[in-house]
Structure prediction request, 289 residues.
Amino acid sequence: MALPLGFTGARLDRADQLRTDPARFAAAAVDPRARCLVLDGIDCVPGEGGGLSWEPIDSDDDRALMLLGIDDAGVPHFVREAPVGARVDARSRTVMRLLPMLSAEEAALYGGARSLVDWHARHRFCAVCGAPTELFRGGWGRKCGNCNAEHFPRVDPVVIMLAECDGRVLVGRQGGFPPGFFSALAGFVEPGESLEEAVARELFEEAGIRVTDVTYVASQPWPFPSSLMIGCRAVTTDPALLLDTTEIEAAMWVDKTEVRAALAGDMGAPFLAPPSLAIARHLLEDWAQ
Prediction:
């Protein structure tokens, strides 16, 4: 598996010891070297030269700070919570045009910040009693002042997989995809099932195929809004498809020559491949080697 995967490789020390020490967190927030990530809602704002944009800590901004981590020089990096009432569209892909301007490390750092800010915007009230919650643990949790329940950011596990049959793999497309675009099939892991069971269930539900020999390949955080994509492979001996057209508009089996052509962007390729940030592309690259 080629590395790094998109949204991985952030080099900041997450500094859990600062999250749990209010005095040290407060000191980091007033460190004159400290920097705060500039966001437009939850989208990144290009800085000079095309990277992320950072600014000094503004003491007049009363929005809570969340600690992203400490760099190798000891400089604290923060992001602020979104303004109360601001519209936060966690699934918006408008930021995709800005992501190519970021280095792999910057994209990873931004992805974590985006997911964190989005989670806070959607969890201002306690899921236990409904009372307002407040940030704690340096921004990596919320606590209810009424019932003392503690809430922490979650990620949603998603299996994304290539089914293989006689030297070909299955790719599919949803109706909202760009014309010609195909990718690996994917689906959320449900309560009470293993990753292997989720792979088998999703492939049967969406494509009507039974698979065995499920193997793990790699994982990737995906900040739209906050998923962990778990890349897998599986094997089937029967290529007959029965698509759930409410989920999958079309699907097809492709061989290594066709996959390599798609990855190379050849005009004659049978489909458009996923972008480099997506783990689906890495799964195809890994299989086509």
